[in-house]
Amino acid sequence: MKLRRRQRERLSLWLQYLAFVAVIAVVIFAADWGRLREAFFRVDIIESMFPTIITVALRNTILYTLGAFAFGLVFGTVLALMRLSRVAPYRWVATAYIELFRGLPALLVLFLVGYGIPIAFPEREIPGGVFGSIAIGLGLTAAAYMAETIRAGIQAVPKGQMEAARTLGMSHFTAMRTIVIPQAFRIVIPPLTNELILLTKDSSLAYVLGVTAQTIEVTKFGRDTLNDRVNATPLLVAGLTYLIITLPLSQVVRRLELRYAKAR
Amino acid sequence: MTTSPSQPAVEIRDLHKSFGPLEVLKGIDFEVGHGEVVCVIGPSGSGKSTLLRCVNLLEEPTAGKIWVNGTEMTDPDVEIDAVRRGIGMVFQSFNLFPHLTVLDNLTIAQRRVLRRGRAEAERVARANLDRVGLSDKAGAFPAQLSGGQQQRVAIARSLSMDPQLMLFDEPTSALDPELVGDVLTVMRKLAEDGMTMMVVTHEMAFARDVADRVVFMDGGVVVEQGPPEEVLGAPRHERTRSFLSRVLDPTHVAQLGRPDETAG
């Protein structure tokens, strides 16, 4: 017996639904729910983590992320402009920096900023304590990535924009600042958001700098609580806390993109 | 910088321009008087756009000299941004700034380059929008306008800088046929107001009606020039005749049985 095309398609669809339901059923019935709840969902532990996980840990995670992002954005923009400069040594320096820092693990750079530099220059101190070290340590690497993104954005702005601005008597610098770069940033919003989300997660590396109760961030807070209570619940709570940042961020960016789509 | 009334608005002497091995302009001598409207016509690849772009130094001439209002553009020490303020340019692809409203498109260079205050810049901008018949579009973004409206905004943007000379680089070539008229009408009004204009165009009707002089270029040289009724009505050169028959009567080109000498 030969099935007709629509019958075949319907059959294949049903088989896939069936397989899906079967997998869910196995998970539901085979799992040891009592044990899972005991390990991952102890309400008393969840309660004990509030409000500190929000008021201190999440706050610090956001601060570290924004600090590193701001540092990376400013420095990355400078690097991008250097890479596009007419002055050859600027290009060499920027290219060398980008190649170097894209190849280094963020953790190593963080050690370098947090321990290497204080050992080399004991009389000097990185401003801002842990915050300063994290912002610079993560920002140095982020700048290398963002520089390439921003450079691509600048080059994606049509040449006619610069020409029109120059014909109106603007200097190269003024045309860059008021015409080209604002358009470039609209183009690179999606990749820069990606970078912001990566930095949010990288901010968990702050623990290697020896954070205190005041400077603790989400992951370290979760791990400390895990050590205290010998239970995995804190990790689940910490993980969900990151979503408080990343999910609204995607929304904000979607809205920004819509608004800029009008001005394109 | 000296400006004397006896000097023409534009003076070009033995202008050469090469792109690599390709010589696009092969010795152009050419003048535009104050208040004169000159239309430059010729087949694509004849160098007419390059000639126009050399006048405000968007292209660097390979050899020869150019004066605009008595200032030598080809002087290596020329204050190019200062001279360009007095030279408006309208591009085939409009090149409006897409991230700015129409009003901001018209005020940004006034404010950054001429250092006009916001109120004064907006007054000038609105007067010029009125001049091109788009006073109701001040708050719109370029993407919300038709091609013809965008090009008129581009003209108003140039006029806001109070130029003494306007360059038009095929201003209607990117427009739908029914939108060409609006732009040409604005340009005709501008010519009637006494603006010095250099127009690269394929609009023979505009050249015939508005131009004081028509210049026919082919193969990087000026083949013939004179009043429109002579150059367009009774061309002396075979190349001019061949070009005009192709443009004015394109459906009968094959019947002329001429070799394809004007293409390129």
Structural features, described:
The complex is a heterodimer of chains A (about 260) and B (about 260). By secondary structure, chain A is mainly alpha-helical. Helices cover about 80% and strands about 0% of the residues of chain A. Chain A has helices spanning about 5-30, 35-40, 45-50, 50-85, 90-100, 105-120, 130-155, 160-165, 170-185, 190-200, 220-230, 235-260. Chain A is flat and about 70 Å long. Chain B has about 260 residues and is of the alpha/beta class. Chain B has a domain at about 95-160. Chain B is built from ten helices and ten strands. In chain B, strands 6-7-8-3-9-10 form a six-stranded mixed sheet, sandwiched between helices. Chain B has a four-stranded antiparallel sheet with strand order 2-1-4-5, with helices on one face. Chain B is globular and about 55 Å long. Mean pLDDT of chain B is about 90; it is low at about 260-264. The interface of A and B includes residues 160, 164, 165, 166 and 263 of A.
Which keywords apply here?
heterodimer, A: 264 residues, mainly alpha, MetI-like fold, 12 helices, B: 264 residues, alpha/beta, 6-stranded mixed beta sheet, disordered C terminus, ATP-binding (chain B), cell membrane (chain B)
